[in-house]
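Lecture 7 notes. Example A: sequence first, then its structure tokens.
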Amino acid sequence: MMLLLKLAARNLLRNKRRTAITMAGISLGLALMVFSNNIAYGSHNDMLRTAISMMAGHVVVQGEGYQADPDSERKVLHSGELQAAIQQALPDAHVLRRVYLDGLLVSPVASTAVAIKAVEPSREAAVSKLDDKLTGGEWLADDDDRGAVLGVNLAESLDVGLGDKIVFMGQPDGDEVESRLFRVRGIFATGSPEIDGFTAVVHLAAAQELLQGEDPSTQIAVNLADDDATEDALAVVEQVVAGFPQAGPLEVLPWRQAIPDIVEFVELDSAYGDGIWLVLGIIVSMGVINTVLMSVLERVREFGVMMAVGMRPRRLAVMVLAEGFIMGAVSAAIGIVIGLLVTWPFMATGLDLSGQYGDAMEAGGVPVSMILYPEIDRARLAIYPFIGVFFAVLASLYPAFKVTRLSPVQAIRHQ
């Protein structure tokens, strides 16, 4: 086998220019694949982290059936006690409560549908960083149960500004209409039309007054520093919840089940990217086929002599495949190195696309920053060498097959 590899390497060096051009194509294609996948991987992770922090948590506790039917009557009772117990069991986690309500928000001049997100202000700010998105005013204080922070588009729809009065009206617990007066404390902009156009953030205590039951919340979110710790944290939270029957029938979900639409969006986007790279791999393979086939046609007479002295066509085919293997392996190594070198500086500075697309855009209902920070996808990085070799060897199959069909006599006479 070593002899065949040496012969294959020597054959590739016969026409250095053609081999170099082909290997450059493979290397650059793979480098582009590495870099763009790292960009996509970083963007997907940023999107998931944003969704986890703003919409759920790594582990979510909520009323049984709320995931399938998000009704405000499905709630967590004695939520403060349960929150404290979970925090004690997971001291390094951020454990926070939220209440979600749908209704109507009314100003002196307009009214519009609204999604109320009631939070514990300081805890929420530490996790979702919504306070960093303020374009005017200030974030809620921990003792401010009369303030509201509105999305920028929602504020425009209501034609209100800082200090203006607004009234929330809804039916959070049955048929009776409840209302609550708030004053606009701040305005935020996330870049998501859905969030900026329909979300109002208020204090948890204000929303709890509209709900029945003892210390009710819609959700207890457990946010972790390490995504990989989700399964262990899930087991701990399930154990704590099992000891709190007074909290009502509850469901405990990992983040993948809590935000399934976002997870599905990321998976579909990844699959779309894989399809593009499959097409690119096929295009690059055409170049490999051309190089190896030209190399074979130039050596038809040589192959005839080798078969005449006893070398089997199958071994000649293996040698041709070895040429593709060498080109693929060397090109893959070069391409991966180039891709990582290009990725490295952007991991610190980010790839700024805000000039073309604005500061943020929406994907799957989640605001995504247009300063993209790539992250190295180690799982795929281990696969890239095999991708380069696979397409190169695959492209060499046809030239190898052509070699096995050669007749020694005709090959020797070939000019």
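Example B, a different protein, same format:
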Amino acid sequence: MASASSSAAAIVDKAGAPLAGAKSIVLLHGPNLNLLGTREPEKYGTETLDDIVNRAKAQASSMGIKLDALQSNHEGVIIDRIHQARSDGADAIILNAGAWTHTSVAIRDALLAADVPFVEVHITNVHAREKFRHHSYLSDKATGVIAGLGTYGYVAAVDFAARYIKPKAK
């Protein structure tokens, strides 16, 4: 069974109705990121995944953007959500693929098929770590790559994506 968590923040008008034409971003977290806050805090810090998602949602909301977040330790769940981002008309994807960054042609192919701009995010500077972490199957196709900014990298990614994507037609 997939251990996935998902949450969305909708942008609404003063009456609480969904705002037409709002931009949308899908934020995806790969394997082991559910352990943030307790897993190797000297590398990844003490913020939990919920803390990170809440900060990213607050940043998105302040910019008039709907943000949907999902974490899974199962590659197929992430691929399915990338496909769904395409069919939902998402404007951008922000992805911390974790270890799949260095191994997954399947996630690369899903991102290419989805044809949605994406930002690759890493909490640590992967280029200052073990040699096998220096290669990414995603970076050469990403609109942008953020690494080594700690958990602030997610806020930076939301900010960049919001400025990069164009408003939907009314």
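Note on Example B: Strands lie at 4-9, 23-29, 65-72, 92-96, 118-122, 144-147. The first strand starts at residue 4 and ends at 9.
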